[in-house]
Amino acid sequence: MFKRLFWLLVGFALGLGSSYALVRKAQRVAARYAPTEVVDRWGGTVRAAVGEGRAAMRSREAELRESIARGAGQ
Q1: Are residues 20 and 54 in the same domain?
Q2: 41 shares its domain with 24
Q3: pTM of the complete model beyond 0.70
Q4: Structural domain of residue 65, as residue ranges?
Q5: Distance, CA of 14 to CA of 20 (rounded, Å)
Q6: What CA–CA distance (Å, rounded) separates 39 from 47?
Q7: Other CB atoms closer than 10 Å to residue 16's CB: what's the count?
Q8: Same structural domain for residues 15 and 44?
Q9: Could you read off the pLDDT of 16-74 as tens digits, one per residue?
């Protein structure tokens, strides 16, 4: 029982560690090969899109909460 638990935890730790290392390496390679103009242009576009999406999400959430509050008050 303990032997299985030990190897399960060892496998989990190795998987987690290798995943972390692989993501870091992929990010470094992408940063090295990406042209700076593209990174600058897309970075601003992505930030704007995320901000717009979050604003829409908050607006919709407020509408839903208001409709739930009106329904509970009846």
Answers
A1: no
A2: no
A3: no
A4: 36-74
A5: 10
A6: 12
A7: 10
A8: no
A9: 999 999 999 999 998 888 777 777 777 778 888 999 999 999 999 999 999 999 887 65
